[in-house]
């Protein structure tokens, strides 16, 4: 069995007892762990169940032991102990606990190898697609218990299937790392979320720490521990802390930005010295805004669009190269950029009838542009974009840019000063930065500055399972963050109004964007 110095699995030799060394078994084990970890003041907790087996494990012929540890705030827990020759390789489970989608990943704790991954729809969607509905449901008698049961049972089913697919046993899972927003972690742990959404917006806990998996009814090793990523408050959750950990933004020398567009737009700005964060924007700026973007990425959904100006037709790409039946956030951004750069819409995002020609049609009094004719679509109906869709996209992109402008302005730096721009989530996987710059959604930075992160929440949970230093790193991130409350004040609304043009009222901010001369 391979093992890594910085991993949670440690190989130990423990001296046999003698008349000269007659301390208790647990004391000799803890002393050996202190020497192995070079931390003389180490506190180690050992559960009763493990203490009951301890004398028999220590007296097996093999003198080397395989120890699996976990820790929280410098306090270590010995989760499992096996003779090295007969040890089953311990596994860890990383969980991205999303409002809509939950992703699991199994990691070999000894070798670091990724063993398997699976995703499923969060079953709490049946109660309500959004967090607020679920929180109100939790106030009903038995509601909170039902929500917790739904998610834990679904995770258990997935664990069994995932373990089977990579030839492991659920009992081999000893460590679990969970990253989710504040409300989702409350519902997983059965903590009452009632006061989270009411002034002054107080969660039950910001730092759940280590929890026995058995107390949540998770069907893994009975001794397994769950680490739930801490949150900053009701609106800044552990999934974002996990994202920062995964990106390495908190170790950067130059200022870097991390943007995660999911149900909300969440932004973190900072470097190794300081971090400032904000989530979404309250009020009218984001109504039907960013929430409509970056979702729906599925086979047959258009994710990239180019306009062939000579043939005057759209060249589209769909996820998994399936016949098109819809368009996702990145496809919509691509499409808007192409429409603007080819003069089919003006700087206000309005269709230009002469340039659009016969592709512009009227449906129930609203202008629609045909993107995919009925003959080429999976549904047999033409795929169109309406003026209403474009207006909504422009509000979203204006809100996104205004959030970025506000957070950088708060610390007195320009968007152009950003060295690295991390884009997380599905949005980050599919988005073309040139298109987002083309409509003024993201700042006009060199393309090499943009780094797609994919699922940064899952990435952060995986990072935790791979390094025994990550708990301290998480605490350092959490302690360093200043949360900026984005009240939609007059200054914000003025900036927002200026950003509601393509790419912006102030063209000098987007030197690389070259719209047609006649606009």
Would you mind describing this structure in some detail?
- The chain has helices at about 25-35, 50-60, 130-140, 145-165, 180-190, 240-245, 330-340, 355, 385-410, 425-430, 435-440, 455-465, 470-480, 490-500, and strands at about 10-15, 45, 65-70, 75-85, 90-95, 100-110, 115-120, 175-180, 210, 225-230, 255-260, 265-270, 275-280, 300-310, 315-320, 325, 360-365, 365-370, 385, 420-425, 450-455, 480-485.
- It is of the alpha/beta class.
- The protein has four domains: about 10-85, Ubiquitin-like (UB roll); about 90-235, Nucleotidyltransferase, domain 5 (2-Layer Sandwich); about 250-285 and about 395-510, Nucleotidyltransferase, domain 5, CATH 3.30.420; about 290-390, no CATH class.
- The strands form five sheets. A six-stranded mixed β-sheet has the order 7-6-5-8-10-9, sandwiched between helices. The chain has a six-stranded mixed β-sheet with strand order 21-20-11-12-13-22, sandwiched between helices.
- A hairpin with a 4-residue loop joins β12 and β13 (about 275-280).
Main beta-sheet strand count, sense and barrel state: 6 strands, mixed
- CATH architect. name of the largest domain: 2-Layer Sandwich
Total beta strands: 22
Multimeric organization: single chain
Q: Approximately how much beta-strand content do the residues carry?
A: 15-25%
Instruction: Count helical runs.
Output: 14
Helix/strand/pairing category:
alpha/beta
Extract low-pLDDT stretches: 282-295
Main sheet: strand order: 7-6-5-8-10-9
Q: Please report the distance between the alpha carbons of the first and last residues.
A: 66 Å
What's the level 1 CATH class of the largest domain?
Alpha Beta
How many independent structural domains? 4
Helical fraction equals 25-40%
Indicate the mean pLDDT.
88
Round the Cα radius of gyration to an integer and report it. 26 Å
**What shape does the CA trace take?**
elongated
Classify the fold: give the CATH topology of the largest domain: Nucleotidyltransferase, domain 5
